[in-house]
Write a structure and sequence with these properties.
Helix content is 59%, strand content 13%. The protein contains 9 helices and 7 strands. The strands form 2 sheets. Strands 2-4-5-7-6 form a 5-stranded mixed sheet, with helices on one face. The chain has a two-stranded antiparallel sheet with strand order 1-3. The protein is elongated and about 105 Å long. The protein has helices spanning 24-45, 52-81, 86-115, 129-176, 180-196, 198-216, 225-243, 268-277, 317-331, and strands spanning 222-224, 247-253, 261-263, 286-295, 298-306, 336-341, 345-353.
């Protein structure tokens, strides 16, 4: 089950229980399920002396025909249907499917007898109980299957709402989280600078205030890439005061930061991990390289840093896991986060789809 997308303002684009059947993937799944349903129906109604494959072919053509017809109508009416309440949309879709199945049954019967050159049934005979039974049976089966399917869609909606709520709760938790070690180190740095360099102490305090304000801000909205970069710069300015020449930063920004947006605190925790689990543990320090470029289909962000040869960078998985889950909930499989690690280098690659651009 794919996750729902979230718009740039942070609100879920998932509304209502009717999925988008205009997508090729869902249309393919609809055809596949229709064929499986035809196979099940053929197995249940098979009798000795009949041609199983002939019956399966007829049932498959009929179920795929009805399913694609229903899917096409729901593709066109999806927005209107999703404005209805759950009981209303269930009633409308069930009646629509039942009616289309009855009409399709009548047309299929006429075509079958036309192909068989049986002129006695060129016009539908309403007095023929066998034909009426076939139509009633098909309509009843379609109604029951639709009710079960609508129940599934309702339960699916509840699961998705739970995933979105959990994801946004994790998002707020990550936003509000200030690492205790970072806060204590920063306060110690400010205290040590007060006597020897009051201006540097004041500047560091301003950077810390900006980070605190951003972390405590209760919002799930996207921010511009420029704002996220500035947030990283505030953090790095504080760590620069603490680590001095050990910390070097290599920014390689190949896009206009004001033209893109992304979830807040997506890049900054990765930079923080690079400093805390990498540069800080190296006696001579090292360079944190941040590369941001636009690739085909989306925005690429890379954060690289050297690590001690004997270290496996423990303790950095929580932030990365939270970021990955938030991106998955917002953008589904279109957004990816991959980690590459060698004996001396740790690299995180983020890819955000073009929908994040403003």
């Amino acid at each position: 089950m794919s996750s729902p997308s979230v718009l740039a303002n942070g609100k879920s684009s998932f509304q209502g229980i009717i999925p988008d059947f205009c997508q090729l993937q869902r249309a393919f799944m609809l055809v596949l399920l229709s064929i499986l349903l035809a196979l099940l129906f053929s197995l249940m109604t098979f009798q000795p002396g009949q041609s199983f494959w002939f019956n399966l072919g007829l049932n498959a053509i009929f179920t795929v025909w009805v399913s694609l017809l229903v899917g096409a109508i729901m593709c066109l009416l999806r927005q209107r249907l999703n404005r209805l309440t759950i009981p209303q949309v269930t009633l409308v879709v069930t009646l629509m499917t039942t009616l289309l199945t009855a009409l399709s049954s009548m047309i299929a019967i006429q075509l079958f007898y036309y192909i068989s050159f049986d002129t006695n049934y060129l016009l539908f005979d309403w007095s023929n109980r066998e034909l009426l039974w076939i139509i009633s049976r098909n309509s009843l089966v379609a109604a029951l299957i639709t009710l079960v399917w609508m129940r599934y869609l309702f339960l699916r909606q509840q699961v998705i709402k739970g995933l979105v709520a959990e994801g946004e709760a994790r998002f707020r938790s990550l936003q509000a989280r200030i690492q205790p070690h970072f806060l204590f180190n920063t306060l110690n740095t400010i205290a040590s600078l007060i006597d020897i360099n009051p201006k540097a102490a004041e500047s560091t305090l301003e950077h810390l205030a900006t980070l605190l304000r951003s972390s405590l801000k209760a919002t799930t909205d996207n921010i511009s890439l420029q704002q996220e970069i500035e947030l990283c710069r505030h953090y790095l300015a504080i760590e620069q005061q603490r680590l001095g020449a050990k910390l070097k930063i290599d920014w390689q920004i190949e896009v206009d930061p004001a033209a893109f947006s992304l979830p807040a605190l997506t890049l900054q925790p990765l930079v923080e991990n690079a400093v805390y689990h990498g540069i800080q543990r190296l006696p001579k320090g090292g360079v944190v390289t941040i590369i941001i470029r636009h690739l085909e289909g989306g925005l690429s962000c890379q954060v690289m840093n050297p690590i001690p040869k004997t270290a496996a960078r423990p303790g950095n998985q929580t932030a990365q896991s939270n970021i990955q889950q938030r991106l998955s909930i917002r953008y589904g499989e279109r957004a990816t986060m991959k980690v590459q690690q060698t004996a001396e280098l740790y690299q995180v690659n983020l890819f955000l789809p073009d929908e994040v651009s403003t």
